[in-house]
């Protein structure tokens, strides 16, 4: 399907815009699942000032959705109405600061932050090696792996709200909990400051290699997948509940529960977003029936059905 093209109207309202506006742009290739419909408008701002200018001049009735590297995302087949914002090169810098700190743009992949920290002899951020995606998503969902979480190392983050105002949030302002941030939903984070501790680069790189090997041995990282599908319920591990409910390898057409790690869904080739999401809902139903536990989606789902 396609949406009405509103890019001429937006361009007319924003003569000084430097970023790129694309109408009815496919989002499938921007997600790890390789599925989903188009964005009515895909906007890639040039930098933070350009993003603020865009949001300040965007009509209030136009919906805004933000995506990152697409690792933890299902775009539904009908696409996403309004504007989808994806941060790019203007948000991809990393700077080492005094006191074993790193300041990074939110388009930086988590793994790149971990490597930059190791190179600078900054320990405490190696766990980011085990998280697929970018820093913007890590802030939004308090991403974590291998014993570390974003909230453990975040000092502050900077962003732009829906009205185009620049805002700064301290760690305490986020209201972090397991795979959750309570920061205002309308804020698009643009950069963040992380606190580490002194470390030896060789030892940190060795820890990152251990994390890499553990991921490759236990997760289907070379498949078209979206990472962990469901949050771990209190007192349980999602994969164990899914396995106990007999869902390992369960398939719905080309959508399948991974046989390697059954909290991962896989597009084996030609799956639609409806196939993937429908399989996830079937897994939730079977787990609820078997154990009485309700699984909550960890993967973000956006857009309208096809």
UniProtKB/TrEMBL annotation:
It holds the Pfam family FAD_binding_4. The active site is at 179, 228 (proton donor), 298. Its EC number is 1.3.1.98. It is found in: Cytoplasm. Its main location: cytoplasm. Residues 215-235 are annotated as: Disordered. This is UDP-N-acetylenolpyruvoylglucosamine reductase. It comes from Ancylobacter koreensis. The gene is murB.
